[in-house]
Amino acid sequence: MAERLRIEVQRSDADIESLMREIDTLRRDLLELDVVNVERPEAGPAPPGTRAGALELANGLLVTLPAAMTLLKEVVSVVGDWRSRATSTSDVTLKIGDHRLVLTGADPTEQRRLIDAWLLAVRAGGGPEEADGG
Q1: What is the pLDDT of residues 41-85, one digit of tens each?
Q2: Burial class (CB in 10 A: 0-12, 13-18, 19+), 97
Q3: Which residue among 5, 67, 73, 93 sits deepest, i.e. has the most Cβ atoms within 10 Å of its Cβ?
């Protein structure tokens, strides 16, 4: 069974168009990996009277990973590289099951330690884990 990874980007500015362009870039980067799918999550039904079927969240992506989750480390690496290239400072939250990782501007050594611990926890399938690189 495939696993779903939720990615959410928190930015300090309110430039939605710029955020959507950057999220689209991240989506293209992730699609270069052998993931099953990368899509924008739905925010819920569109308001009554509109033609849209559902609203999409501007600040997030859902990545469907193969069941073996062998790509998870590569996905985290692509997200980290994308974060470092983003035009404005962003915190990025990755969530799979009950496991949550927040990529921030933390010391690179500390960030690497948190990523490694999160990857181990996800692979072990243990209880809720949270790693915050703040």
Answers
A1: 876 665 666 555 544 567 889 999 987 778 899 999 999 999 888
A2: middle
A3: 5
Please spell the DSSP secondary structure of the chain, one letter per residue.
--EEEEEEEEESS--HHHHHHHHHHHHHHHHTSS-SEEEPPEEEEPPTT-S-SEEE-TTEEEEEEPTT-TTHHHHHHHHHHHHHH-SS-EEEEEEETTEEEEE-S--HHHHHHHHHHHHHHHHHT-S-EEEE--
pLDDT at residue 32 tops 90:
yes
Q: How far apart are CA 107 and CA 88, in angstroms?
A: 18
Q: What is the spatial distance between Cα 81 and Cα 14, in angstroms, rounded to a whole number?
A: 22
The answer to whether the CB of 82 falls within 8 A of the CB of 29 is yes
Burial 12-38 (b: 16+ CB within 10 A, else e): eeeeeeebeebbeebbebbeeeebeeb
27, amino acid identity? R
